[in-house]
């Protein structure tokens, strides 16, 4: 009989990560906070990590949980990097202003006038001193720790 720990850990990581991703999408699409390019890149770990965590939960695979832990640990480091850019601890990439600027069809000149470019070095929101990037680092650290804990025998 296999331990239920990998399955529970996988489900918990999937639930936490889905909640965090849902919150990010809610802030973007309902409350109007547009993400920068680095914010969009930070979501990739969630897009990969949630299905991997669910498969790990269904199969009880400790190897998959290690992969989930690695994905979220790497994204936690990326979140700290992004938060450091927002706090002016270090410079961001030179492309750090082309974020979520999208131009649709229709009148191109009018679309360009109304397009807001979101820079990566300005936090648009903070809670308890942490921006979206900072909170993503916290959530990813928790997910990585839970996934790693789930690999225990």
End-to-end distance? 12 Å
Number of domains: 1
Give the overall shape: elongated
The CATH class label is Mainly Alpha
Helix/strand/pairing class, anyone? mainly alpha
Order of secondary-structure elements:
HHHHEEH
Mean pLDDT score: 81
Largest sheet: 2 strands, antiparallel
Portion of residues in beta strands equals under 5%
Give Rg in angstroms.
18 Å
* Helical fraction: 55-70%
Main-sheet strand order equals 1-2
Counting DSSP E segments of at least 2 residues, the number of strands comes to: 2
CATH fold field value: Bromodomain-like
Give the name of the CATH architecture: Up-down Bundle
Multimeric organization: single chain
> CATH homologous superfamily - what is it?
DsbB-like
Which regions have little confidence, pLDDT < 50, spanning 5+ residues? Answer: 98-103
Task: Summarize the entry for a quick read.
With 153 residues, this protein is mainly α. It is built from five helices and two strands. Helix 1 (5-29) runs antiparallel to helix 5 and helix 2 (37-59) packs antiparallel against helix 3 (62-86).
């Amino acid at each position: 009989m296999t331990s239920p720990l990998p399955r529970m850990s996988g489900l918990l990581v999937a639930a936490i990560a889905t909640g965090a991703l849902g919150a990010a999408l809610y802030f973007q699409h309902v409350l109007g906070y547009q993400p920068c390019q680095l914010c969009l890149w930070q979501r990739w770990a969630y897009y990969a990590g949630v299905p991997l965590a669910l498969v790990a939960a269904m199969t009880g695979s400790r190897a998959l949980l290690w992969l989930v832990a690695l994905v979220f640990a790497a994204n936690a480091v990326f979140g700290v990097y992004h938060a450091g850019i927002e706090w002016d601890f270090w410079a961001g990439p030179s492309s750090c202003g082309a974020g979520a600027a999208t131009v649709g069809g229709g009148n191109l000149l009018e679309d360009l006038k109304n397009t807001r470019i979101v820079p990566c070095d300005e936090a648009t929101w903070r809670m308890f001193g942490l921006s979206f990037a900072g909170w993503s680092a916290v959530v990813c650290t928790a997910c990585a720790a839970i996934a790693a804990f789930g690999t225990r025998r």
